[in-house]
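User: My collaborator sent over this chain with a note saying "see what the structure looks like." That's all I know about it. Can you take a look?
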Amino acid sequence: MKAVILAGGKGTRMRPLTNKMPKVMLPIRGKPIVEHQVDLLKKYGINDIVMCTGYLGEQIKKHFEDGSKFGVKITYSGEKDPLGTGGAIKNAEKFIDKTFLLLYGDIMLNMNLEKLLGFHKEQGAKITLVIHETDHPYDSDLITVDESGLVTKIFHKPNHEPFPSTLSKTSVCIVEPDVLKQMPEGKHDFEKEIIPKFIEQCSVFGYITDELVRDIGTIERMKSLEERAREF
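Assistant: Without extra context I'll predict from the sequence alone. Here is the result:
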């Protein structure tokens, strides 16, 4: 399995911290948040990584280079103009030839990736979303699943009471490479434009976990993650 990390966002909600630094390079416990992701990937034998870069991407390349000093291989897929999450993934298609773990570069996670992949294969899914219980359903993308874990619908934020679910989608998923064939070129949103199509095809499953998966998102969330440092 490969990993594809979306690392091109501008991090506007994190300004002024991101005025001169890409959000994925902000430090948690003394090293960039995306480096924590690379460490976890290496732990589970995922050594082939594609970094989708954009805003201040040269800083990411300077830090990781070809990945060899971190014990992995890193290939860069750059974008001159913002392509959105879907466009960035499609832009990297030439580097993707197998099942891949898709990560947004601004999340901290500490989870068993082997179990996640096992679930994905067992279900025969095209896309497996990592989902968890949320205590703020109003500003989360909510998911409903059936008894087998098949995703039946996604409700994009904001949501209102009565909430359809307390299960929320995280920024981690496993994707089969043939999904890329059904994605258009150019700027588009993977979550809002692509995932719903595959939900209609009954090929998206939800992997429910209480493991640590949290985006930094705002300066307040980043500070909260620093306080929870012992968890990762």
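A starting point for your reply to your collaborator: The first strand starts at residue 2 and ends at 7.
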